[in-house]
Design brief:
heterodimer, A: mainly alpha, ABC transporter involved in vitamin B12 uptake, BtuC, two-stranded antiparallel sheet, two-stranded antiparallel ribbon, 4 strands, globular, B: alpha/beta, Rossmann fold, 6-stranded mixed β-sheet, 5-stranded parallel β-sheet, 11 strands, disordered N terminus, transmembrane (chain A), transmembrane helix (chain A), transmembrane transporter activity (chain A), membrane (chain A)
Chain lengths: 363, 383
């Protein structure tokens, strides 16, 4: 009971707080908060928005997982942005050039994407373990470089095809596409949602049921203890960043293989940063990340619906920001409260008075 | 420096005897730029080619196309902006102005505006169009080529709604494409820059390196070279394709522009949306000149403190195109719209406010006429 409360109370508080704060902002800006909330809830019953929400959430789930893997070991992989964009362009080029039977074709594209993402994450990993370069610095810079690489690779002189004012890679033929789950007029849910779910399960299994997962979490909780236990910090850093990069490589795949079939200059950027927020919201837990991804996607779609009824769409950005901030704060408050309660319980159980610091007690 | 031979390099001479003046002994500027920031006595104006003859009377055929007796009161116009939306002092604002004018002159019943976010996924663009079409807005106008895929997918779902897209050519029974000959307008900007440069050295600052902005670059370079074959041209883009921040980053615009000015350029043309503000500021601090884009930026209130350096603007009449489209739609005569808004229909052009190009309008109109008549072909790809 108490565990459930510790886990669920903070996000509920955070969302309630965010709604309150946004309502105040809406009232100040002269809009009706009830109309806004009504539109945000109502859009879910328009088929297309519901489908779009799930599709975006699929992408956010993947990107959230990629970031969360790094978080498990206290690695802040800001480079997911660059890794997924680099992987997307490489996979799109390879996928457009190959001619393979169905299923195999899509499988090859996915593997190429994961390898490309991992390869791009190798750079910060190697820099970190050999030269001690902090991954935040190196990955941020590599994000810019990835942007340049994508622009170079997609240019007409390289692999791009110009259509009107837009440039994108050669389209991936039908054999490489992943069919979606059609809901008629409401749209089509990406088939990749199944793969994302499997990855979530794999993430959970890896962390809680394998030796690697144990070592990963141990290194994250206490590097010195892990080292004393025979875990090589360098090896763990490299593997973690590579796995994170490989998952990052898949981020653009739902859209690439399920909707756009080509990667171009209009393809969405910025998912990597969304992933950080989603992983924070989900507390790095596979189910939590799924919840965070759905919430984030729903807020994103709300921006369009609110704009449509004349309410400033920036309100959803405020809401996203407040939710992340309040979730972090709320968890910390609940954690401290639980800790204090625990200490009181232990104190009561052990003796009539708590041990002093000198005797090994805590403050 | 190596250009110091031309002791008689008077800019006034160059300006008043344009086309005939052959500066004897004008050393060709071969170099990778000197440190002569802007004019002074060091650089020399260009050796100018003969301009094509200006049309007789040189009247620019502006058949000012007013509302007439077209009644659009049964139209509800939906307008889907690209990133920036109303108030960007550029492209989106021009589209908004077209709708505003249609409301005033044609009595459009209702209009609604929605705006794209900077990093949004494709389906957000689709829902935006879909929601407006569902709410009964007809026509629905998508501003910007970023909407191409969305219009392609949404338009067939609403066969009774007329869609229009600015800056992209699309097929479809209920889709009207409003595209422009940016390279032709930019050609004239290039000519003007060559005539006004004191160092025979000009620069182009593009926002994002996409095919659309490359059209501006291509036209500008061809124009400058047509007017002055030996001219030196700097070209820079603020961000690579895929990174839209180049359209909204005045600081970057300022830095790139200052770099071009430092290497000797003294007339800069920008096609960088809101980043152009930075280009104008750099030009002002170096006493150089700059050319605006899309709308008459000399008149732009947000640029008032730098308007002295804006010698002209390459005009892209998005507002006219949008207005004409609404009017044609109300009159049920969509076929009357030009396939492309080019110089011939005054879909692109140059502005004269500020009076800095008044002395060369004859030459500019000469080039304009030559392009309209097909004597000069302007390519839309940079060499």
């Amino acid at each position: 009971m108490s565990v459930l409360r510790t886990r669920l109370l903070p996000p509920v508080l955070a969302i309630a707080f965010a709604i309150l704060l946004c309502s105040i902002a809406l009232v100040i800006s002269g809009a009706n908060p009830f109309a806004a909330m009504g539109a945000m809830a109502g859009q879910l019953f328009e088929g297309t928005t519901a489908v779009d929400t799930i599709n975006s959430a699929t992408v956010y789930y993947l990107v959230g997982l990629a970031v969360a893997i790094g978080f498990q070991m206290n690695l802040f992989n800001i480079g997911v942005e660059g890794q997924y964009r680099f992987a997307a362009i490489v996979a799109a080029i390879v996928g457009g050039a190959l001619n393979l039977p169905p299923v195999l074709h899509a499988f090859v594209i996915i593997v190429v994407a994961a390898l490309a993402g991992a390869a791009y994450a190798t750079i910060p990993a190697v820099l970190k373990v050999t030269r001690g370069v902090h991954e935040v610095i190196s990955t941020i810079m590599l994000n810019s470089i990835a942007g340049g690489l994508v622009a170079y690779l997609v240019s007409v002189d390289q692999f791009g095809v110009q259509q009107g004012n837009s440039v994108s890679t050669e389209p991936i033929p039908a054999s490489g596409q992943i069919p979606g789950i059609s809901f008629g007029a409401a749209g089509t849910i990406f088939g990749f949602v199944v793969i994302a779910g499997l990855l979530g399960f794999g993430y959970w299994f890896l962390l809680t049921r394998t030796r690697f997962g144990f070592e990963l979490r141990a290194s994250g909780l206490s590097p010195t203890a892990a080292a004393a236990g025979g875990v090589s910090a360098k090896k763990m850093t490299v593997i973690t960043l590579l796995v994170s990069g490989a998952v990052a490589g898949l981020v653009a795949m739902p859209e690439l293989l399920g909707r756009d079939y080509a990667y171009g200059i209009n393809s969405t950027t910025g998912y990597g940063f969304t992933g950080i927020a989603v992983a924070l919201l989900g507390r790095n837990h596979p189910a939590g990340i799924a919840f965070g991804a759905l919430l984030w996607a729903w807020l994103d779609k709300s921006a369009v619906s609110l704009d449509n009824i004349g309410i400033p769409k920036e309100i959803t950005t405020i809401m996203q920001g407040t939710i992340v901030l309040s979730v972090v704060v709320a968890y910390e408050i609940v954690r401290r409260a639980e800790l204090a309660a625990e200490q009181r319980r232990v104190g009561r159980a052990l003796a009539t008075e708590p041990a002093s610091v000198r005797e090994g007690g805590t403050l | 420096m190596r250009r110091s031979r031309g002791a008689f390099a008077s800019r006034l001479a160059a300006i008043s005897f344009v086309g005939v003046l052959a500066l004897a002994g004008c050393a060709k500027d071969t170099g990778d730029g000197g440190d002569n920031a802007s004019g002074g006595g060091q650089g020399q104006p260009c050796e100018l080619a003969d301009p094509p003859a200006a049309p007789q009377g040189s009247e620019s055929n502006t058949e000012e196309n007013d509302g007439g007796d077209v009644d659009a009161s049964d139209l509800k116009v939906g307008l889907a902006f690209d990133v920036g939306g109303r108030g960007d002092a550029s492209f989106n604002d021009a589209a908004a102005a077209g709708v505003d004018r249609a409301e005033e002159e044609l009595g459009v019943a209702d209009s609604k505006e929605t705006t794209a976010a900077a990093t949004e996924s494709e389906d957000a663009k689709m829902s935006r169009l879909r929601q407006m079409a569902t709410d009964g807005f007809n026509p629905v106008i998508a501003v910007g080529f970023a909407y191409a895929e969305s219009v392609k997918k949404v338009a067939p779902q609403f066969p009774d709604t007329q869609f229009a897209i600015v800056d992209e050519s699309l097929d479809g029974d209920n889709v009207t494409s409003l595209v422009f000959a940016e390279e032709q307008g930019s050609f004239l900007a290039g000519v003007a820059a060559a005539y006004k440069s004191e160092n025979c050295h000009v620069g182009f600052v593009g926002g994002v390196n996409t095919p659309l902005i490359q059209k501006f670059e291509a036209g500008f370079i061809q124009g400058a070279k047509a007017a002055a074959p030996d001219i030196e041209i700097e070209r820079d883009y603020l961000t690579p394709a895929g990174d839209l921040s180049g359209f909204n980053d005045p600081n970057k615009g300022n830095v790139k522009a200052a770099g071009q000015l430092n290497s000797g350029a003294d007339v800069l043309f920008h096609a960088a949306g809101a980043s152009g503000k930075g280009v104008f500021q750099a030009a002002k601090s170096k006493d150089a000149l700059a050319i605006g884009v899309d709308s008459d930026q000399y008149k732009d209130k947000t640029l008032a403190d730098t308007k002295d350096v804006i010698m002209t603007s390459m005009i892209k009449e998005v507002d006219v195109a949008v207005f004409d489209f609404i009017k044609a739609m109300a009159a049920d005569d969509l076929d009357s719209l030009p396939e492309r808004f080019d110089l011939a229909v005054n879909g692109v052009g140059y502005s004269t406010s500020g009076g800095k190009v008044d002395d060369i309008t004859e030459q500019l109109d000469g080039y304009k006429q030559a392009i309209i008549e097909g004597d000069i072909k302007v390519s839309d790809k940079p060499e």
